[in-house]
Write a structure and sequence with these properties.
The chain is of the alpha/beta class. It has a domain at about 45-75 and about 135-340: TIM Barrel. It contains 14 helices and twelve strands. It has an eight-stranded parallel beta sheet. A hairpin with a 1-residue loop joins strand 10 and strand 11 (about 300-305). The longest helix has 25 residues, at about 160-185. The two termini are about 25 Å apart. Bound molecules: L-rhamnitol and zinc ion.
Length: about 425
């Protein structure tokens, strides 16, 4: 049923779409060339529901994040995760990166505490990435660990526990530096901690004071910041931290404005009706770079697979209109264990790429002129007309040119991998 699209038909439809966009002054060939230069960082944790390969495999606890769903065949070894990721890569056009968490270390069956992790534990990942021409990104893991069980890490009142997590973060920055060196391109390392309280803490100050101190100590470690690019991720609430999150948006916005790291905005980390597209211009007028966690919350920070919806369209419109594509690192962050996980990666990544393409195909100068001339009806009308322009034909051409199935063609490949590999595990 899901046969690969007929190549000559894809070309034919593209040519007609190109003409339609040209009439609005949009150069589709140029848009495709620009899209091809935008890397998207796939998150390893969609492949195994954020479990990782740590030897004492603890259930996720105290982490404030939770993957739901029991779809069979989740990757349980590094080899399986790499094979699944490669399958996903083969169905996604354009430049990709791969983002690892510290719990995906390979320690050869030995227990290695998180504060002792070193680049050697990621040597296989680095070799794999290099062989595939893919760059890696990284994340310290401040959850799913006995020392995080009570919900506090870098802001813990206990100095020893805090010191442990500081050592972990520094170890991770060294790993990120090694990845950056190995790939000859910076590795983005994102620091997210779950710290917070379920209900009305009396003292909202001290944990934040301690978090500042911990982060300052972590960032003071001698690590080459050209290779290791730090980001700090804010959050509104988590499971078990409904009332108070130490690393709130205001906290990290202020931290990032007064220190070197970039801010990470996760689309699921704000009030349910609050979107992040309006924050892009504010942040990038003050900071050089920004990290995104492209996600989809439904009623809460649910981390659903990303769709080509208005949140995504508005987000990339803001970035493209502000000519900020090169200043924004695009990372994905969703995890749904209830469907074929390769499908989840491919759906979400292709949706993000479509949203970028959609923004690149906008006649922005024309819209801006209409707006400047006070013709709001024409501006709004043109935005409406653009929604039904043949974006799909341009997208299919992009897939075809990059040697991956256009349109629904990739579904057959996902389904056969599901039958032959996933369900045989
Ligand atoms: C959690 C944050 C964080 C994690 C990943 C696994 O709310 O979004 O980015 O999802 O680090
Ligand atoms: Zn996130």
């Amino acid at each position: 049923m899901f046969k690969p699209a007929e190549p000559s038909l894809v070309t034919q439809r593209y040519e007609s779409a190109r003409e339609q966009y040209r009439q609005l002054g949009v150069d589709t060939d140029e848009a495709l060339a620009r899209l091809a230069a935008v890397p998207i960082s796939l998150h390893c944790w969609q492949g195994d529901d954020v479990r990782g390969f740590e030897v004492h495999d603890e259930a996720l606890s105290g982490g404030g994040i939770m993957a739901t769903g029991n779809y069979p065949g989740a990757a349980r070894t590094p080899e399986q995760l790499r094979a699944d990721a490669e399958k996903a890569f083969s169905l996604i056009p354009g430049k990709l990166r791969f983002s690892l968490h510290a719990i995906y270390a390979e320690t050869g069956g030995r227990v290695v505490e998180r504060d002792r992790l070193a680049p050697e534990h990621f040597a296989a990942w680095m070799a794999w990435a290099k062989a595939r021409g893919i760059c890696l990104d990284f994340n310290p893991t401040f959850f799913a660990h006995p020392k995080a069980n009570d919900g506090w890490t870098l802001s813990h009142a206990d100095a020893e526990i805090r010191a442990f997590w500081i050592r972990h973060a520094i170890a991770c920055r060294r790993i990120a530096e090694a990845m950056g060196r190995s790939q000859g391109s910076p590795c983005v390392i994102n620091h997210w901690i779950p710290d917070g309280a379920k209900d009305q803490p009396i003292d909202r100050w001290a944990p934040r004071q301690r978090l500042i101190q911990s982060l300052d100590e972590i960032l003071a470690a001698p690590v080459d910041s050209r290779l290791c690019r730090d980001a700090v991720e804010s959050k509104l609430f988590g499971i078990g931290s409904e009332d108070y999150v130490v690393g709130s948006h205001e906290f990290y916005l202020a931290y990032a404005m007064t220190r070197a790291p970039m801010l990470c905005l996760d689309m699921g980390h704000f009030h349910p009706t609050e979107t992040i597209h309006d924050k892009i211009s504010s942040v990038l007028l003050f900071k050089k770079e920004l990290l995104l966690h492209v996600s989809r919350g439904i009623r809460w920070d649910s981390d659903h697979v990303v769709n080509f919806n208005d949140d995504l369209r508005c987000l990339f419109q803001q970035i493209v209109r502000g000519q900020a594509l090169k200043r924004v690192h695009i990372g994905l962050d969703f995890f749904d264990g209830g469907l074929n996980r390769i499908g989840a990666w491919v759906i979400g990544t292709r949706a993000a790429q479509k949203a970028i393409l959609n923004a690149l195909l906008e006649p922005t100068a024309l819209l801006a002129d209409l707006e400047a001339g006070g013709d709001r009806a024409s501006t709004l009308a043109l935005l409406e007309e653009l929604r039904t322009m043949p974006l799909g034909a341009v997208w299919d051409q992009y897939c075809q040119a990059h040697g991956v199935p256009a349109g629904t063609g990739w579904l057959a490949e996902m389904q056969s991998y599901d039958r032959e590999v996933i369900r045989k595990r």
